[in-house]
Specification:
single chain; about 290 residues; alpha/beta; eleven-stranded mixed β-sheet; 7 helices; about 20% strand; globular
Length: about 290
């Protein structure tokens, strides 16, 4: 079996992962460009853990400027099998107030400026995104939250907007009426790229505000968000620590095939594939391309 390697992407407010042992920083070269930050590689209770600060330390990178392809590629090269995204978000539901953690199970992509696939002209592939979150990873996160007595909503739809501006009132009301749970700016195309890279993926969306639909939150400010972020960060660290301590040491095959998403995805005939693109796909798709 494959050894489990847990990846953690830290969003707003989470630029490090205390509790990592035997830590080393590593800059891994990627043919897709430069990742957000050096990887912090270590262990928690003997489990290999790889941490990446999505916005870099000091929150240097805007959501639209993140090189999502390079981030996922270097995590794949580091051996990550299971990836957890920790992401700040706004809420569209009264029963998901600031401070709530939401275990997202669906995404809606409203971004338009980002490179959202490793594949393209010269090697076309279509992976399924019907169920974008690995169910076993969600179960482990829910169990870790329960063990740490962290309130966590078990389901929710995350709509990803381009940003960096917050939603207009009309947009916020529309998303609320459509039944979405939370809004953020970073989990797409991250989840799509993780699926193409055959990495099991899950999101813990950490609510910082009610977005502007709410009469008490009609003008979301960075200062308001930061206040809640500070409280969320401590619980996020506890959640990740418990998850890592209890996580299976052998990678569990994903029941929805997240870790074998490319088995039936490649459509370009072998003789028509672009060698230059294939070279860039060595980490992401090497398993099927070499086969």
């Amino acid at each position: 079996m494959t050894k489990a390697v847990l990846g953690i992407i830290g969003g707003s407010g989470i630029y490090d992962l205390p509790g990592l042992e035997n830590v080393r920083e590593e800059v891994i070269a990627s043919p897709w460009g430069v990742a957000s930050a050096p990887l912090r590689i270590g262990t928690v209770a003997g489990l290999p853990v790889v941490f990446l600060a999505r916005h870099d330390r000091g929150h240097r990178i805007s959501p639209s400027d993140i090189n999502y392809r390079a981030n996922i590629d270097v995590l794949k090269r580091a051996g990550v099998t299971d990836l957890v995204s920790l992401s700040a978000c706004g809420s569209f539901k009264e029963d998901l107030p600031p401070g709530t953690f939401v275990l997202v199970d669906q995404f809606v992509d409203r971004t338009h400026l980002r490179q959202n696939s490793f594949f393209g002209t010269g090697c076309v592939a279509h992976v399924s995104m019907a169920h974008p979150v690995s169910p076993r990873l969600r179960i482990h996160l829910a169990e870790a939250a329960a063990a740490e007595k962290i309130h966590l909503a078990r389901n929710g739809t995350y709509v990803c907007i381009e940003g960096p501006q917050f939603s207009s009132l009309a947009e916020s009301l529309t998303y609320k009426q459509l039944g979405y749970s939370v809004v953020g700016m970073t989990n797409m195309p991250e989840a799509k790229l993780a699926r193409e890279a055959e990495i099991c993926y899950a999101t813990v969306a950490m609510v910082t505000d009610f977005d502007c639909w709410h009469p008490d939150h009609d003008a979301v400010t960075v200062q308001d968000v930061i206040k809640v972020l500070s409280a969320n960060v401590e619980r996020a660290r506890r959640l990740v620590g418990r998850l890592a301590r209890d996580f299976p040491r052998e990678h569990e095959p994903c029941p929805i095939g997240s870790d074998r998403a490319l088995d039936t995805a490649l459509i370009t005939a072998p003789e028509a594939r672009d060698p230059a693109l294939l070279k860039k796909l060595d980490a992401v798709a090497g398993r099927v391309l070499r086969g």
